[in-house]
Amino acid sequence: YDEFIALCFLQMQGRDPDGQRDITLGIMRSLMPPGGDKIFRKLFPTNKFSLELNAVICKIVFAWMVGPMTVESTTENDLGEMIASKVHIKKCRWLQESGCTGMCVNMCKTATQDFFVNDFGLPLTIKPNFEDKSCDFYFGLTPPPIEKDEAL
Q: Where in the numbering of this chain does the Beta-carotene isomerase D27-like C-terminal domain appear (predicted)?
């Protein structure tokens, strides 16, 4: 994991925030097979089932990177319904071990939001808490414009 964090710092060098986000987006996109984005959009339209399933998948697949997570119910979503689409990370391992808010914002938050919204067509807002190093992923909540995002 230390080598992973070191690699992330190397990827940040010489890049502005947009460049840092773009390098992460490039990695995410390279993991998708051709046409994978179109298949995802068909399989996961923005509805309660898709949002809840993506929250569960996130909890399982990304625990190695960010640490233990829980899925919680919330009305903070574009549907305005109580659904289990919020993923709470009690203490983000990546943020804690890197100690870098720039890495969190540029290489995780904005890149992942962009990937889900623009490539998958599924709204996602990520809200890191830099004080206690927790973080919340809101599947189904459209992120605010960058200039209005509190984390930035």
A: 64-147
pLDDT of residue 120: 96
Over residues 18-38, the pLDDT tens digits come to 999 999 999 999 999 999 999
CATH at residue 86: 3.30.1380
pLDDT of residue 152: 81
Residues spanned by the domain of 40? 1-148
Query: 20: buried, middle or exposed (CB in 10 Å: 19+, 13-18, 0-12)?
Result: buried
Amino acid at 43: L
Distance CA 66, CA 126 (A): 13
Q: How far is residue 141's CA from residue 63's CA, in Å, rounded to a whole number?
A: 21
Query: What single string gives the DSSP state of each residue in 104-130?
Result: IIIIIIHHHHHIIIIII---EEEEEET
Name the pairing type of β-strands 69-74 and 124-129. Answer: unpaired
Structure tokens of 82? Answer: 């109580």
In total, how many domains does the chain have? 1
DSSP helix/strand/coil, 87: strand
With contact defined as beta carbons under 8 Å apart, do 123 and 140 qualify?
A: yes
